[in-house]
Amino acid sequence: MPLIFPIIIKRVVTLIVDIIFPCFCVNCNKIDTLLCNKCFEEIEFYLNYPTISIKELYFDEVIIACKYSSVSKKLIHEFKYKSVVNIKNVIAQIIYRSTNFPNLEIIIPVPIHKKKYNQRGFNQTEEISIELAKLSHIPTYNFLSKTKETQSQMSIQNREKRLSNLSKTFSINKNVENNLRELYASKNISFPKTAILIDDVLTTGSTLNECAKVLKNYGFEKVIGIVFASK
Ligand SMILES: [Zn+2]
Questions:
Q1: Residue spans of alpha helices (H) in the chain
Q2: Quick one: which of 98, 100, 122, 168 has the fewest CB in 10 Å?
Q3: 77-129 pLDDT, tens digit each
Q4: Could you name the CATH architecture of 43-230?
């Protein structure tokens, strides 16, 4: 009996929240869901991932959940630019359920620059990483920082320019690193050597590769990139 009350309270709260903030399918506007079953079925999942043509690869593998096409594009757009923050659950569920999620030691989101963070109010990959941490029980930390402001990778047409645009852009977040070193030392467990890097959209793979480079140079032995959608 005592368990029924919390359930009832939760349902009432959910109902109130739904009445005040009803949700709609991002693709067809069907009420009561952020993504309806019909639109979910339109998502194009990969059988074979596209090849990443970068000469020097620093990540060990890249896993991509789906193609960047109508439905996935809308999910990203509503999440990033219209701040429908609950979409993070939908994206994380799609990533987790559609990929063979690797069992590595820590999840690290691809960072955004502080200025962009302040404009948007959140880092989309951090939000997705938090949800993935709940699903996978692998801890997530903002281990990387974006120290240089860059032009959006998506807006640069020339490949060479895209690569030079990113050079020396990312670095280890020293505060997080110090806290983590202390935390792991206090628990008497060795510092992680394997990491999952999370990004929302993959264009050329250069952002992910630059982040993996920083982690490998730091001492990580294995870095697997996981991306929601790829162009
Ligand atoms: Zn729909």
A1: 4-20, 37-40, 70-81, 87-98, 114-120, 124-136, 159-166, 174-186, 206-218
A2: 100
A3: 999 888 788 899 999 999 999 999 999 999 999 999 999 999 989 999 999 99
A4: 3-Layer(aba) Sandwich (3.40)
